[in-house]
Description:
Elements: E1 2-8, H1 13-22, E2 29-35, E3 51-52, E4 55-65, H2 67-81, E5 89-95, H3 109-112
Antiparallel strand pairs: 1-4, 1-5, 2-4, 3-4
Helix pairs in contact: 1-2
Amino acid sequence: xxxxxxxxxxxxxxxxxxxxxxxxxxxxxxxxxxxxxxxxxxxxxxxxxxxxxxxxxxxxxxxxxxxxxxxxxxxxxxxxxxxxxxxxxxxxxxxxxxxxxxxxxxxxxxxxx
Length: 113
Ligand SMILES: Nc1ncnc2c1ncn2[C@@H]1O[C@H](COP(=O)(O)OP(=O)(O)OP(=O)(O)O)[C@@H](O)[C@H]1O
Ligand SMILES: [Mg+2]
C-alpha cells in the first residue's frame, strides 16, 4: 500500500481529479496549503494570485492506494498538473503500513477503497 501526497497548482486540480477518475481513482483528500519550492516562492509569483511572504497558495492531494494503482496515480497527477513551468508541483510516495475503515473495522488493502 502506498500513500501518495502531491502538491500542485490550484488551477490544475480539476484536471488532475478528472484524469484520476478516468482511471477509477476516486478517493482523495484535498487541502488548500501554502508552500515554497526551490525558487523559495520568489520567481514563481507570476503564476500565483495569492502570496504571503515567500509562501504561495498550493493544493495538496493525498491518496492512499493499493500497490497496483500507485504508478497510474502518479501518472495521472503528472499528466494533469504538468505545464512545463516552474512550480508545477511535486509528488511524494510513501510506503503505507496500514489502513482502517472506522465504520466496519476492515483493515489493510480492503479498507483502502
Ligand atoms: N522538498 C520538499 N518538501 C516539502 N514540500 C515541498 C518540497 N518541494 C516542493 N514542495 C512543495 O511543493 C510545492 C511545489 O513545488 P515546486 O513545483 O515549486 O518544486 P521545485 O522543486 O521548486 O520544482 P520547480 O523547479 O519545477 O519549481 C512547493 O510550493 C511546496 O509546497
Ligand atoms: Mg519551484
